[in-house]
Amino acid sequence: MANNQQNFGFGGRPHFRNESVPLSPTGNVVASPLPGMMMTINAADALNVLPPAAREKVEGIKLRREELGALYRESFASEQATRAEIFQIEARIRGLQKPRGDGGPDLDSDDFRVVTEQKRLDRARADLNRLLAAREPREAESTLLGRLLQNIEAAIAARPAGTIGAMVEIDVPAVKDVLGAVEAKRRRLRELESDLARCRHAPHPSADRKRAMIAQVEALAEQGRPDVTGSIEHAEPIGFPAQSRQVEIHNVPGGGAIGFSEQPNSIGLIAWLFKDALIAALDREIDEAADDGEALTIEQRRERETEILRDMLATAREEVMLVDRAEKQGQHVAHRADIDPLALLQIAWIAAPPAVPQEGAGEAGLVRTVGL
Hints:
There is one protein chain. The chain has 372 residues and is mainly alpha-helical. Among the domains are: 1-161, no CATH class; 206-295, no CATH class. The chain has helices spanning 44-47, 52-96, 112-158, 178-200, 206-223, 229-234, 266-273, 275-289, 298-328, 341-345; strands at 163-167, 242-249, 257-264, 347-351.
């Protein structure tokens, strides 16, 4: 059996990007265990940045995943035993129906001995199907829990420096239809995700881009300005600026060779020679492409994105509370694999309190002289 053991802390490489944290089948043999079932979880130190309630929730997720691992191993053994039984019964049926010319009894399919074995075979196949059907949801749950643990690990690693987790109190009013409320929160999150995409892809104001365009052309013109100093002072040819460009070299052993070449700065020269005409032409192009009715400035974009991300986190926190409430009421609904870990654990990152030095810390190796 393949060994998929990994040692990545909570799990494998994370699939989650925490937007709220600033940048700072089946055959005769099962080929391998559940994805990540053999993971070694050794992130106790990382959990120290979480408050007790959040740590307890992480430990609960880990414990449930370990239980699923034990269930998997037990189910795997039963599946293999049932497959072996099916193989043996099929072999007996073939033996009972073996032609007399080959040394067999050549029994008909309605012979009671064949019928008895066939019934045993049907029962064994039904048992195997039940085992396989029960395994599928456990595999899905284990994969989900693994994703949650990976995302928590990623969130801890991405937290701002010098911060720890603090619990956030969320008050979600009682509702009659908890599952309906969960779906409503998820629907709202999808709407907010659409708002966020529109915000991030909104056009920029044409006036801002025109100012940037003029500055760009001015810089290009300065880069392409010819040098006549050498001509005046030393009777040398006029110097035209050149640019160093990276080029790929083909038809060489091994391939992938890269070289550099000096080429005239033709764009800069055009900008220097026809600066005003170039600015006017680009001004017209910007006017044709502009959509100022939907445009957002950089500051507006930043403020709007911050507001949407705040609403998404708040909505996700309410979703988690409703999912937990549904579980307590015996209505099974799983957390989403991409749920924000801050919402899942109901925490926020706050500045860590300053470390309190222990008495006598730093005194090893020092000799105190008293009375001098």
